[in-house]
Amino acid sequence: MPKLDDLDLTLETGSKGKKLISPAIAALVPIVAFAVGVHLYSNELLLTYMAIYIALAQGINIIYGFTGYLPFGYFGFFGVGAYASGLVMLDYNVPPVLAVIIGGVAGALVGAILLPLFRLRGAYFAIGTLAASEAIYTIISNPSLQSITNGPYGLNLAGFYSSGTAYGTAIALAALSILATSFVRSSKFGLTLKAIRDDSYSASMAGVNVPRQRFYAWLIAAAIAGMAGSVFGWSTSVFYPQAVFDPALSVLAIVFALFGGVGTIWGPTIGTVVLYAIYNAIGVSNPQYFQLIYGMVIVLLVLFAPRGLAGFWNYITTKITTVRAKND
Amino acid sequence: MRKKTFPVIAASFGIALAACGSSSTSSSSSGSSGTSASNLPAAPAQITVGTTYSGSGSFATSSLPELAGLKFWIKTENAKGGVYVGGYKKRIPLKLIAYNDLSSATTAATLYNQLLTQDKVNIFVSDFGSVLTAPAVSLAQAHKVVLFDQTGTGIPFFTPQNKYIVLTDLPESSIWPNVLAKFLISKQIKNLAVLYGTNDFDASQATTLKSILSQNGINVAYYQGVPSSTTSYGTLLQTISASKPDAVLEFGYAANDTPFLQNVQSSGMHFKMVFTVFPGQLLSLFQQQVGTAGLAYTYTYGTNFYVNYPTVSEGLNSSQFKTQFAAAFPGQLNSLSLDGYNTGLVIQASLKNAKSLSQTDIRAGAAAASGHLNTLNGNFVINSEGAQTGELLPVAQLFPSSSGITLKAVYPASQATGSAVYPAPVG
């Protein structure tokens, strides 16, 4: 049985040059689009949240797309990040950008604490993460911890509010998450994760340290969510615990990632941009029909593009290739 | 290749940050600085009022009647030719822009920004409650636009640094229980149980109440916070009952108060006094969900909906509003629709006093109205931070009657429409 170190990954994923250009383009396109977009459409907060959702969808992509573990409680890391960064800003006057990094570290630390959840699989894992996140929410919003977390009274970061810098940081985070996905996808590490996703027992037999590799992916995803929560808290500025520990955050991030196509670099980004744009367009133009239209759109997409846009794209390109081959 | 790629990415981050840095916050079209009479800009063809509402979700039952009240105010004023603006000495028609935030703070935030950056509304109004108001606070501050905060009574909103917020319809949550505390002291209640939701609105009330009662030597034998999502109180009631309280006070949202009252009834327990927050605001809903037996002789905040204000300085009085609103918006009449209408009256008074439509002048107009504005919601008084300190809520008790349940204010004496029955009769 071949060992992973013996595999020639370059052969599988293309030349080294291509390996670097592709992620660079995937990260550069949203950077440029967001930088230009804010001058065309001035609802900067909406664009900030879109960038945050790209990061979250990419985080889901790393843990679900590459390992097969679906964390319904992903919002827990988001909330932890928002609180950790908010508290270091308020208590220690830490600059917001540095606080965002601290939020990411806090998310990763909580991820490490929740590592025993990987004893569970499938729906049990999903529900386990949900329960853990609810527990974290209850702890943080507990009035007995008011001296530390301000309990149920939320945080007011108005003194640190800077919409432009928060926007730039959100874009940088989105790009960083795309680069992280690219790294995972094209590295030996990513290959081991895919092996774990497809058959963890066989991967283990092939010499993959399954718990360790899964742990690394989990930490990366948790850190991304922590940083995303930090930027969210900073850009929203005044928030309550229920706003940052909102299960809807996980639901949207998962839907965006699935719609675009997990296991790909572009899928979650495109999925987020398209669905979040539709979400807001309907909300502004036809608020009374919002849920009806949005629900129908998702049902249609699930029916006709179950593997997301990436799967649909593959289907189209395969068809074209087949037709061309026949014609030749 | 690696050497070439990463400088490009780094440069792009730089470009993005530079591009974003320049796009910081932009002010509303109505401007932010005060205006003197000599350089007053031309009057706009209409004044836009922007708000969000919860068309679904946990806040919908409270948000929708509040929006209906605001719509009623706009309809009433437009029937007269618009709202009167002091600076222009004429009426200007009103136009409402309302977006559905689905009870989500994240969605509300982007829609608030839409109102400020795309619609450039003249009057900025937040949705129901503190959770959905929170995202609007810093946006209003950053855009230098006055936020007419309807019912977001959260303490963090009101700071000396924030000059752009006015709480219109309710007192700040920490002073809600002041009258209730006095009532408990007057009844010489010595042993108390307090159960509260761990959210800003409920916890701040519980904290204030406990502090006042402790200063007056009243023992709070049971004091417990529970998650706001709690809907089962059976075990908690057993523990409360064991402490043999003279009064049980539950501070929650409507979604908590309803199961709490249902659980008290189904448990067969009897307490001398049971207090919950929301029956006074949504009485007909509670009557449907809890029933007459479950509500009988319980206490609540007697919102100004149940207090008659025959003489007002602005808008309709209590009875006029109830008649006209019920005709215009059938089935939506309750204390929150009154709050929505009252928001309009505060805006109306602010515009009447304003020298122009600049946000600074509108805020100054609201400050000028403070203490002088008497509406169907009581006396409007705000402090320097924009927090409401008037419109205090009386204590009310729910009495069984031929029509189901009747709410009567029982304390203070100046607002009382009935006498408290304490202890509550058994059965």
TrEMBL record, chain A:
<keyword id="KW-0812">Transmembrane</keyword>
<dbReference type="Pfam" id="PF02653">
    <property type="entry name" value="BPD_transp_2"/>
</dbReference>
<dbReference type="GO" id="GO:0015658">
    <property type="term" value="F:branched-chain amino acid transmembrane transporter activity"/>
</dbReference>
<feature type="transmembrane region" description="Helical">
    <location>
        <begin position="215"/>
        <end position="236"/>
    </location>
</feature>
<protein>
    <submittedName>
        <fullName>Leucine/isoleucine/valine transporter permease subunit</fullName>
    </submittedName>
</protein>
<keyword id="KW-1003">Cell membrane</keyword>
<feature type="transmembrane region" description="Helical">
    <location>
        <begin position="20"/>
        <end position="40"/>
    </location>
</feature>
<dbReference type="InterPro" id="IPR043428">
    <property type="entry name" value="LivM-like"/>
</dbReference>
<feature type="transmembrane region" description="Helical">
    <location>
        <begin position="160"/>
        <end position="184"/>
    </location>
</feature>
<dbReference type="GO" id="GO:0005886">
    <property type="term" value="C:plasma membrane"/>
</dbReference>
<feature type="transmembrane region" description="Helical">
    <location>
        <begin position="289"/>
        <end position="309"/>
    </location>
</feature>
<dbReference type="InterPro" id="IPR001851">
    <property type="entry name" value="ABC_transp_permease"/>
</dbReference>
<feature type="transmembrane region" description="Helical">
    <location>
        <begin position="122"/>
        <end position="140"/>
    </location>
</feature>
<keyword id="KW-0472">Membrane</keyword>
<feature type="transmembrane region" description="Helical">
    <location>
        <begin position="96"/>
        <end position="115"/>
    </location>
</feature>
<feature type="transmembrane region" description="Helical">
    <location>
        <begin position="248"/>
        <end position="277"/>
    </location>
</feature>
<feature type="transmembrane region" description="Helical">
    <location>
        <begin position="72"/>
        <end position="90"/>
    </location>
</feature>
<keyword id="KW-1133">Transmembrane helix</keyword>
UniProtKB/TrEMBL annotation, chain B:
<comment type="similarity">
    <text>Belongs to the leucine-binding protein family.</text>
</comment>
<feature type="domain" description="Leucine-binding protein">
    <location>
        <begin position="46"/>
        <end position="397"/>
    </location>
</feature>
<keyword id="KW-0732">Signal</keyword>
<dbReference type="InterPro" id="IPR051010">
    <property type="entry name" value="BCAA_transport"/>
</dbReference>
<protein>
    <submittedName>
        <fullName>Leu/Ile/Val/Thr-binding protein</fullName>
    </submittedName>
</protein>
<dbReference type="InterPro" id="IPR028081">
    <property type="entry name" value="Leu-bd"/>
</dbReference>
<dbReference type="InterPro" id="IPR028082">
    <property type="entry name" value="Peripla_BP_I"/>
</dbReference>
<feature type="signal peptide">
    <location>
        <begin position="1"/>
        <end position="18"/>
    </location>
</feature>
<dbReference type="Pfam" id="PF13458">
    <property type="entry name" value="Peripla_BP_6"/>
</dbReference>
